[in-house]
Amino acid sequence: MAYSQELASAIETYFNDNQYKYTKNDNSNDECVYVLRVKLHCKLQNMQELIIVRDDNFSVLGTIPIIADENHRLAAAEYLTRVNYNLRSGNFELNMLDGDIRYKTFSLVGDGPISQDLIKNTIVLPILMIERFADGLLSVLFDFSSPKEAFDAAILSHRVFHFKEHAAACSFYFQKETYDFILKQL
Predict the structure, then answer these.
(1) Which of 39, 134, 138, 178 sits a CA distance of 20 to 30 A from 47?
(2) Do 127 and 49 meet the contact criterion of CB atoms below 8 Å apart?
(3) The pTM is what?
(4) Is there a contact between 50 and 63 (Cβ–Cβ < 8 Å)?
(5) Which of 39, 132, 43 is nearest to 84 (CA)?
(6) How far apart are CA 40 and CA 44, in angstroms?
């Protein structure tokens, strides 16, 4: 089935309205892929997003320029599992074969009107989550801390201010107890 031209157009409108630089690959009838390169405010410094548009949905894959080597994959998996627990939307993924790490979101649009807020939240969430948890991941990958120590530090770190800045956009991505816990740490 062909990808939705209407959805692709709505995503391009969001990019253009926000002055995002992107590339587009629509060589396939089944899907259209946009690529964004994003600068981050963490030690990782940058990431890439792939926005994949299909007939009635789109996915966003936030990819990072580092992999978990074979000796650190189990520790990375534990860290990412700790992060994923209590998330309401999206999740981190780790390919145990090659160490590739990404954050994935998905939105089903269906036949109804396409909301710019839905597009924004689906595209921005991987950026916020990678920015929020990348330093802990790097700490695990380079043996500076255990997965539990890195997770605890990420939750209590000064980077929590990003959640306060984006509270309206982020509060619904976590269960209420987790969000309240994070805000109490500020």
Answers:
(1) 178
(2) yes
(3) 0.82
(4) yes
(5) 132
(6) 7
Q: What would you report as the CA-atom Rg of the chain, rounded to the nearest whole angstrom?
A: 17
> What are the helix and strand counts (H, E) for the chain?
7, 6
Q: Specify the amino acid at residue 76.
A: A
Sorted by sequence, the CB contacts under 8 Å of residue 139 that are 6+ apart come out as 145, 149, 150, 153
Q: How confident is the model at residue 163 (pLDDT cuts 50, 70, 90)?
A: low
Reported as type and span, the H/E element at residue 87 is: none
Burial track 64-101 (b if 16+ CB lie within 10 A, e otherwise): bebbbeeebbebbbbbbebbeeebeebbbebeeeebeb
Per-residue pLDDT of 104-149, as tens digits, reads: 999 999 877 899 999 999 999 999 999 999 999 999 999 999 999 9
Report all structural domains of the chain as residue ranges with CATH numbers, in order of start.
5-184 (3.30.1460.70)
Q: Which two tokens stand for residue 175?
A: 């269960």
CA atoms 21, 109, 107, 4: torsion sign: negative
Round to whole Å and give the CA distance between 2 and 175: 36
